[in-house]
Each structure stands twice: as C-alpha cells, then as structure tokens.
Amino acid sequence: GGYTALALLGGVAAAGLALAAYETAARLGLDLRWDPVSAGGATALATVAAIGLVEESAKLAGILLVAERGAPRPTVLATSIGVAAGFAVVEAVVTLRGDASAHALARAALGPVAHALLSVPLAAGVAAGGGRGRRCVGIGAALLASAALHGAGDLGIALRGAGRLAYAAALAAPALALFAMVRRPDFARK
Length: 190
Description:
Elements: H1 2-27, H2 34-39, H3 41-66, H4 73-96, H5 102-118, H6 120-127, H7 132-158, H8 163-182
Helix pairs in contact: 1-3, 1-4, 3-4, 3-7, 4-5, 4-6, 6-7, 7-8
C-alpha cells in the first residue's frame, strides 16, 4: 500500500526532474525533442543518447529517493517498477496532450512496461552491495546501461524497417537479464 504509493510518487518526482532537465537543455540551445531523432543521422544519435541520460538519471534519482539503503533486491526491483510507472504516466500526460489516436493510446498503455524494463539495470545497480566506491561504480555502470538501452529503443522507434527490431531488442535485453537474475538462488538475499 504505502510503499507502492511512495514508489509512484518517486516516479512523479523523477518526471519532474526530467522535465526540468529538458527545460534547462532548451534554454541552453539543445534540442532534445523527437524531431531531431526522427530526422536520423548523427544528430539523432546524440539526441537519443541525451534523452536516455536525462530520463534514466531522473528515474535513478526517484529510485534512490524511495529505496532504503540495503533493501533486498526484490524490494529495490519493485521500487524501480513503481518509479517507472509513475514516470511513464506523467510523461504520457505531458507529451500526448489529449491525443486519443490509437498510436497515442498504445504508447500510454505500454509506456510503464517499457520504462520498467529500461530501469532493470538501475535496480540491479542500486541493489548491489559493496563499499561506497564499488556501489558508486555499479550505479554509474547501471545508469549508462539503462541510458544506452533507452537510446537504442528511442532510435528503434524512429527508424523504419530494422528499427522495430532494435526497439524489441532494447526491451528484450533487460527482460532476459531480469529472468536470469531472479532465477539465481541468492536473488532474494542481499
């Protein structure tokens, strides 16, 4: 009950951080909208990399805000799913702006699932044990992995043809990693 609500609120806070980062980027003259991505080329790669870093950094902040240090892996994973769901709901409301097309409704319905899958590396990084230095390196690597998956997924959506395969692979990779992780006998233990 209460923990789920905290995770969802962490996602709302994460979405607010992402929106603030996008506004800051715009004021600095950076165009992190969908138009440069759909145009393709080197600009698209730089844009999806930046979008991935902005959104995954924001979700990481939401997870760190809610998850207690030393929490068991299943709890951190559940937290990341809740944060991703809250983030995706706010993202859908802000970006779709009342669009009721089939594409918009599908995006709104699948957004929480996609964002939850993209946050799997973040959950693994936050749940990893070790000293402060090791934990920071693990979280940094997890952030880069999530951002790269996010960027690959966004680029896949924008590209025609093989792009759908890239999108599917970007979401399948963390799903498969999650299945492997939870099947390990030590998953529930810290």
